[in-house]
Write a structure and sequence with these properties.
about 300 residues, six-stranded mixed β-sheet
Length: about 300
Amino acid sequence: MQSAPLIERELLEKLERLTIHWQKSFRGLVGGHNRSRYAGPGQEFLDHRHFHQGDDLRAVNWRAYMRLEKLFLKMFQVEPRTPIRLLLDASASMSIGGAPRGTKFDYARRLAAALVYVGLVRHDTIVVQPFRDNLPDSIKAGGGRHRFGPVTDYLSALACEGRTRSFDVVRQFLSEYRQSGLAIVISDFLDDEDWLRPLQFLADFGHELMLVQVWDEDERSPRWEGDVDLEDAETGAHLQIALDDMARQAYTESFDRHSESLEKLALRYGGRYAGLPTSTPLEEAIFFSVDQAGAAIERSTRGA
């Protein structure tokens, strides 16, 4: 029996109108769809400057020369080809959830697939990098929408297992990906370690952060009552607690403070944050929640 596709064709057609957007200009990177502040060869006229020895004669404004008998060089807006890396949490904690919505990991990889497709339509190149306590093999997606099939095969074959070690993951990421760019992190951001410091470390090295926090509704607002035995999905450790209305409220407030701290960190470094329970329809997540996270996604009126 053939498994259902990660994303339905109807949604793929709607995704064709979007473009992944980033805030920063990264010097030395050309191509793409986001404007840079730096002058150079491109398609949108920026300004003139005087011709200097060694400049490309093809960029000379010969009409201006015929009028003024001076050489001026036409300058154009550079559009940076920013490296995009999508870090996908594939640790055991992402296995939480079930029918009818599926697990957090099911939701996260569908969201990852949607973002990759948006990039492929605009001929961006995106590295999908899963993480647990380390960085397993990744996949590089580029070359247009017809390269989407291998990405969905790769994501469908991924399994969530093992523990999250955010510090180790970020250290390895910075070692393997030396050039700064846009870092999209899709995770529940649940770890025995403090996620904030590794993310700050990532931003300090020049990476722009786009944080997408995914959670199951029961993780934020537990429905259980009475004495409850909780098991950590990653470590197997057990915790027995008594849940009543007051305890549930305190738990939800603690969860919300954690989410707010992630958002504040992202905004402090010029990045973006979106929080998504798995009950959020994928189309709504892309077109509203992620779209509104500081214009992380831009709607396009251009033809695909």
